[in-house]
Write the structure tokens for this entry.
Amino acid sequence: SEREGMSRVVDEYLKTTNFMDLSVSSEAFSYQDLLEVEQISDIRKAELRYTSNGTVRVSGTDKKLEFNFIEENDISKMILYEGEAYSSSLHGIWIDRDFATLQKIEVGDILQLTVDSTAFSEPVKGIIDNPDHMFFIIDETYVDAIRGAYGYAFLPASEYPGKNIKYNRIFVDISSVNNQFYLEKKDKNEIKRMAERIRSFFKRNDLDFVLKQSDGGFSSISEDMKSSETLGTVFPGLFVLIALLGIVTTMTRLVNKQRTVIGTLKAIGFSQRKIVFHYISYPVVICIIGCIAG
């Protein structure tokens, strides 16, 4: 079915990108925090990220851009569409495909950027998509996702233009959770349990968690799938009901018009069964032809 086909595509996308199982946000995380989180049992891998909103100048106008400064690209990996694959040793920026298309940004362009009140420039190394941004709203001035009006980008942490980078997010890959679209109950419980373990480990009040199943893009696609399934169940039943009503109405009018004929048939010896079969054969034949024709 269409729904199953879409599910397989989404599932493959999440597996290919190793979509995060949960992310933790705080004012600042250190390398020591990362190492200690990775020591928690059942955590396969964790990565630091610094995310901050800034701007990029395009055709003389400043456009909003979410900056993601990273070192590794193993959890919620970028999908490269054009340019060079990400490497922490490269100098440059990897930018959102929708934003690049609408704003006519190409690989090799030099972009004038501003983040944390610091201006700098970077060459475009690649055009990418990222699973964390399947449903992306950059700030509260937008109530819905508008692809291309604003964008997101990834850069190596070494490209941060400020004095000291303060990582504000940790992305976590849990070894006991499969990266699949349809999470089982035990997977969801394991993600929740891991979030509580990390919260207990840090003993801080400023932690915010985004679980895989509650991520904006993941939940949006799930709801769309459920809506499609509901429509796929309701509409066929509705069409069958309308067809049955049409047949009943047509046959009732036909029988009422032919009462005299039916009386004559009975008078000359036709049985009740033969007369009923005669009139029932009309809708049956029509249904068979309709089924064959599709």
